[in-house]
DNA sequence: TCTGGGGTCCTAGGACCC
DNA sequence: TCTGGGGTCCTAGGACCC
């Protein structure tokens, strides 16, 4: 907290209750992916839009208009084609370069308007306003909302409360209720109560579908009932995580505010294939490509991995096929971020788990037991000359790919044809991250 | 024909040690 | 005849999030 100075010395010996002090805002971009598509294509305004998952599999994001048509979250694309055609729904493959870039622009704007910010996901951030009791928070949040849309074109909603969970709930109401103009503070007990009385238990942050069902079986049906549930009972029947949610609903902050993002514990790269794969040679291309991608991420973050794991699986949606899934991992002789070495071990694992005669649907690589490059424990057998050479090579590869576009330089093992490559047939341009795809303005 | 990908945390149970 | 118990580490599985 940055304004401890403002605490009056005469009251400083009385520990202030954290409940009274903690105040947090959740800023959430409205229909983020759909809004991103609209920024560079204003014709999409007021029209139904959906964005598809990788492989153009299912709808992972929807504009309000698409929601109104009854397209559910996660709907498989092939099951909603009729609605799409009938209502001329605009359909996009996901364009993560674009969304990632716009996300960081939004976050930079938020950083300028709050002291503490915790970036929670690609489209959400918590802002810590604890101790700013004199600030007119409502007015300030309206200003934030205006500034973000001016700087980035992305509309946001802001919810404010005495705990993260309550801020989440406030945000939800701000989005749903036009009278709030996109900003709602439910810190006042009367408003908190009103909000919790109407909210279904399954809509509380931290309560997924499994626990919602179980809670409802016990008669806990709305957020207010969860708030009033016996804490011990919740911890015994569920776990301590849900116990924290109960406290949060009572306005007792129990989920910490984390300004500095924790370093990764694991990095995964996996994809479903565009079409089923049977030959190990093709699986190897995929595993090599995913490994290279994961290793690149590792290096970009200044990390090393100690363990690599590979998994392959058939499709559970093809019951006619015989099913098989397996995974295995190897602890490396020493921590590394060298793509070639990781691919080498990835192949050893793949050889050990591959079974002939199955139609594989997906493969993936996970890097586990990740450590920062600084101050890591060097193996007794480490060959420092070899290591230096590998570092130099990787540095060059990363530099070239950054300059000339990703995958300009790659490993032979990654292959070229990539028959297994995912479908991505409706992608918009990388407007902001690729010179070739920058939008052209035409004067008439 | 067509159903995503990338994360975190917690818990229970087994192995192992003293 | 009598056959401990507590701590720690690891792993798999299950829950959650976006």
Essential attributes:
single chain; 444 residues; alpha+beta; Alpha-Beta Plaits; DNA polymerase, domain 1; Dna Ligase, domain 1; 5-stranded mixed sheet; 4-stranded antiparallel sheet; globular; disordered N terminus; DNA-binding
Q: What is the share of helical residues?
A: 25-40%
CATH class of the largest domain, please?
A: Alpha Beta
Strand order of the largest sheet: 5-6-1-7-8
The figure for the number of domains is 3
Whole-Å distance between the termini? 53 Å
Major beta-sheet overview: 5 strands, mixed
Rg estimate, integer Å: 25 Å
- Strand proportion, as a percent range, falls in 15-25%
CATH topology of the largest domain: Alpha-Beta Plaits
Instruction: Please state the second-level CATH architecture of the largest domain.
Output: 2-Layer Sandwich
Helix-strand sequence: HEHEEHHEHEEHEHEHHHHHEHEEHEH
CATH-wise, what's the superfamily of the largest domain?
A: Reverse transcriptase/Diguanylate cyclase domain
Instruction: List how many beta strands DSSP finds.
Output: 12
Overall mean confidence score, pLDDT: 90
Describe the global form.
globular
Structural class: alpha+beta
- Summed up, the helix count is 15
Low-confidence stretches: 1-19
